[in-house]
Amino acid sequence: MAEARAHGFVYASKKRPGSDDADGGEDAMVVAKKQMISGPVAGVWEDPAAALAGARHEFGEHGGVNMSIEASATFTVMEPETMRRMFTGELGPDRDFFIYSRHFNPTVLNLGRQMAALEGTEAAYCTASGMSAISSVLMQLCSSGGHIVASQALYGGTHALLTHFLPRACNITTTFVDIRDHAEVAAAVVQGRTKVLYFESVSNPTLTVADTPELCRLAHDKGVTVVVDNTFAPMVLSPARLGADVVVHSISKFISGGADIIAGAVCGPAKLVNSMMDLHQGALMLLGPTMNAKVAFELSERIPHLALRMKEHCNRALTFATRLKKMGLKVVYPGLEDHPDHVLLKSMANKDYGYGGIMCVDMETEERANRLMHHLQNVTQFGFMAVSLGYYETLMSCSGSSTSSEMSEEEQTLAGISPGLVRMSVGYIGTLEQRWGQLEKAIARMGEFGLLKKN
User: Which letter, b or e, does each residue of 405-441 get, where b requires 16 or more Cβ atoms within 10 Å of its Cβ?
Assistant: First the structure.
């Protein structure tokens, strides 16, 4: 049977011929010629777009340029003895043996290969949502009595998981820190108890940039595993290249790009990913946040143009942020030279991908934030009032009363979330000048009503 090793797993080229234990022969060799098997050399980082282009391309069952969808929930075997060997772990997806799609599915595994290439990790596994990826990783790495050190600037759902659910359900506690204060991070680590340092590469919604190399050095010196949420910065940052052990994503956002799919991913060492799929102890296997094969197929067709989309998201975000700042507004965007993390982000970022597709305008009060969003959506048609990000249209929300509402007022203050902070996921539809005109007109309307407070 022809095989290709890719990012920590060995994937069979095609459905095994004949008997379960067949080695292949001539037929398998013919199949192998259709695979275009290649990939990045282990330990050598490539530009993420180059790494994606070098990952194995999966052809369809009948030679289609796109892979086939393996929509089966369960899989047959040729001999009764094979099933026993599959359940003992002797035979598995590395040799093209599949049991049940909650465990491993060929189409979902292919998407995992793409995510591993994108993030430069050994392996990846894709899940039903970003939160399922985050919660599964943390429960795999931490046992009852375990401890996590996490940034106080996090997505509200993650903050709620760490603050409320994990302590109650799993006896796992978290100490929240200012991720920029490395002395505070180090002091929060409890020797022998702290298992994970968790932060977002670019924080939601404050756009704080974490010094990933230094934080990884600090954590590893203390025997702590580093988990980084890179949802805000795919292509822009590569946390695993910078030292992170595990990278998680809400694929629902920039990677999907269509605001029509909920999905997540865990990217990291093959040993960890395999342990998470263990029949007896695996968090992903036993909690069951399974990605549907049809969803995996949809996403696998979008990842190849992620680089093009991210470049335009970032280009427009930088352009609009620069112009708004010149107009005197309080703008938060790490691409601006006066952002406290601008130099840091520039030193870590992958070349030519910009500084991210999210910018914030701080209107200081919720009332002014809501009025601005009203004008932007209902008067000038600049974008939509909606949560999430990475869509081709601009999406806007007042974070304090929406995606960060799980946090108390005190927690929001500690995280640096102003009551009037408007988070904008900058879209790329229409021309740049067309969209700027709509944004500028809404700002002018705010000024006419005396609602525009400038620096």
Answer: ebbeeebbeebbbbbbbbbbbbbbebeeeebbebbbb
Name the helix (H) or strand (E) containing 332: strand 331-332
Q: How far apart, in whole angstroms, are the C-alpha atoms of residue 34 and residue 37?
A: 9
Determine the Cα–Cα distance for residues 362 and 62; give it in Å rounded to an integer. 54
Under 8 Å between Cβ of 374 and 384 = no
Is the distance from CB of 36 to CB of 58 less than 8 angstroms? no
Helix spans in 76-127 (H): 80-87, 106-119
> What residue numbers bound the domain in which 67 lies?
3-95
Given this model, what pLDDT does residue 236 score? 98
| 400: DSSP letter | G
| 9 C-beta neighbours (distance < 10 Å), count | 22
- CATH classification at residue 319: 3.90.1150.10
* 3-state class (DSSP) for residue 36: coil
Q: Which residues touch 104 (CB under 8 Å, ≥6 apart)?
A: 92, 93, 98, 277
Query: In 10 A of CB 109, how many CB atoms?
Result: 23
Residue 15 pLDDT > 70: no
Calculate mean pLDDT across residues 218-245: 98
What is the strand order of the sheet 173-177 is part of?
A: 123-127, 264-268, 246-250, 225-229, 194-200, 147-151, 173-177
- Find the CATH number of the domain harbouring 255: 3.40.640.10
Q: Do 78 and 127 fall into the same domain?
A: no
Tell me the pLDDT tens digit for each residue of 395-448.
999 976 776 677 777 877 776 778 889 999 999 999 999 999 999 999 999 887
Which ranges constitute the DSSP H helices of 142-250?
A: 156-160, 166-170, 182-188, 212-221
**Residue 407 · residue 415 · CB < 8 Å:** yes
Tell me the per-residue pLDDT of 160-196, one tens digit each, with 9 for 90 and over. 999 999 999 999 999 999 999 999 999 999 999 999 9
Check: CB of residue 249 under 8 Å from CB of residue 264.
Answer: yes
Same domain? 222 vs 176: yes
Q: Residue 13 — pLDDT band, cuts 50, 70, 90?
A: very low
